[in-house]
């Protein structure tokens, strides 16, 4: 989309090295467009300001001093430019930031301060959009000077800092068919679920960075835009979920979110920056790391997660295969989920000769554990989560053949 808001043009250019720039407007506008009529009426003229102005508040804190406070946190007094609103660090830190701004936006709505709420929402839009920008995908390499050593630039791009060219463009984002989802009935629940949606945005953006750089080197402008839009569309969908949820919470018109949430696809804390570092690889039953949705025979061949139940064998889509001596830690929101359930067991064929101890802990304290043989049926484990903020799943080989320790956590789920 051509820039509709010319007064902001100079600011966009000044800040284009640090953010999506113009696409912030296009992404926010696409998200606002799919909100239901009652929410657009509630926002009234703030809806336009949200996409024309407020979504850039975190970039403009030094020039737009009147709005800067809507991108600041009580826990960081005096810090005007909060880097975490632009670049993800680690889950516990950015979860707190998402929760904080959502709480502020919801509270402002409940106090009838729609203008303040829209400004806090603008800050949240910016954070989601930046995390999902193709230029914000490599931790510690925001200008891609490292990435360019792996992917040497064309002669024409030799002296270009790649951040701006990778993310900036002049495109329209449309998600007209998308229906935003209410992510929870409290701020604690909704902000935690939003964080997991944002992980999808980050991983999706990572898949676009290298194709965009290659297209830039090849001067293939249409391919640049195609890949940028792949990132922008998912960004817009998650921004729409965030705005829709905040407005539902603020108006106290929440739909009852599901009582149960499946966590088999959620990223644990061990996958720092959403990938498993070398320290998290294991050597039994094979050299690898935990996998969601599949189990790897010999570390190479993906097979469905399967367990032997009393009623016969069953395959599971929601689940994780893990390795011996390793723990998976899931960050939980406070006062939301009371109970955790999972089916623990060994794969009936791959793990037939194995023997594994499955341990579930909360904040480092064991809650329950069970030792199972490969020939045993899977065990349904239920445990209460008394004020637990970190849920841990650990595996230990207790047999003579650790190479047969093909252990599965099937249907891991949290219950309200
Ligand atoms: Zn930014």
Explain what you see:
There is one protein chain. The chain has 416 residues and is α+β, with helices and mostly antiparallel strands. It has two domains: 6-257, P1 Nuclease (Orthogonal Bundle); 262-415, NPCBM/NEW2 domain (Jelly Rolls, Sandwich), CATH 2.60.120.1060. The chain has helices spanning 9-15, 22-33, 37-43, 46-52, 91-110, 114-131, 147-150, 163-167, 187-217, 221-250; strands at 260-262, 291-292, 294-297, 301-309, 312-316, 319-322, 327-331, 339-346, 355-362, 365-373, 379-384, 390-397, 407-415. The strands form three sheets. Strands 1, 2, 6, 8, 11 and 13 form a six-stranded antiparallel beta sheet that branches. Helix 2 (22-33) packs across helix 10 (221-250), helix 5 packs antiparallel against helix 6 (114-131) and helix 6 packs antiparallel against helix 10. The protein is globular and about 65 Å long. The model is unreliable at 1-17 (pLDDT under 50). It binds zinc ion (ZN).
């Amino acid at each position: 989309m051509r820039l509709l808001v010319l007064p902001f043009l100079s600011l966009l250019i000044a800040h284009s090295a640090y953010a999506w720039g113009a696409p912030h407007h296009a992404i926010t506008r696409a998200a606002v467009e799919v909100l239901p009529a009652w929410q657009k009426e509630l926002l009234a003229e703030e809806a336009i300001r949200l996409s024309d102005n407020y979504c850039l508040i975190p970039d403009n804190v030094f020039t737009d001093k009147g709005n800067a406070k809507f991108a600041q946190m009580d826990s960081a007094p005096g810090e005007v430019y909060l880097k975490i609103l632009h670049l993800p660090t680690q889950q516990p830190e950015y979860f707190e930031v998402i929760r904080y701004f959502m709480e502020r936006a919801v509270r402002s709505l409940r106090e009838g301060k729609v203008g303040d709420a829209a400004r806090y929402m603008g800050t949240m839009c910016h954070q989601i959009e930046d995390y999902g920008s193709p230029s914000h995908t490599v931790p510690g390499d925001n200008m891609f000077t490292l990435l360019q050593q792996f992917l040497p630039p064309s002669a024409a791009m030799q002296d270009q800092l790649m951040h701006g060219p990778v993310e900036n463009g002049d495109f329209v984002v449309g998600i007209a068919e998308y229906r935003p989802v209410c992510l929870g009935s409290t701020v604690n629940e909704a902000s935690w679920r939003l964080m997991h949606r944002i992980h999808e945005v980050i991983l999706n953006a990572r898949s676009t960075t290298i194709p965009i750089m290659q297209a830039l080197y090849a001067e293939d402008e249409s391919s640049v835009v195609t890949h940028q839009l792949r990132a922008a569309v998912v960004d817009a969908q998650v921004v729409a979920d965030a705005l829709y949820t905040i407005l539902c919470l603020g108006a106290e018109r929440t739909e009852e979110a599901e009582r149960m949430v499946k966590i088999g696809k959620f990223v644990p804390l061990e996958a720092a920056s959403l990938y498993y570092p070398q320290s998290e690889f294991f050597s039994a039953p094979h050299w690898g790391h935990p996998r969601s949705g599949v189990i790897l025979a010999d570390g190479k061949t993906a097979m469905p997660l399967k367990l032997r139940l009393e009623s016969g064998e069953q395959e599971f889509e929601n689940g994780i295969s893990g390795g011996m001596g390793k723990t998976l830690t899931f960050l939980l929101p406070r006062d939301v989920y009371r109970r955790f359930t999972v089916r623990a067991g060994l794969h009936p064929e791959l793990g037939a000769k194995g023997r594994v101890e499955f341990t579930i802990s909360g904040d480092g304290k064991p809650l329950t554990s069970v030792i199972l043989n490969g020939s045993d049926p899977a065990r349904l484990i239920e445990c209460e989560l008394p004020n637990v903020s970190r849920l841990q799943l650990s595996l230990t080989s207790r047999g003579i053949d650790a190479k047969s320790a093909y252990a599965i956590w099937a249907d891991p789920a949290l219950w309200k």
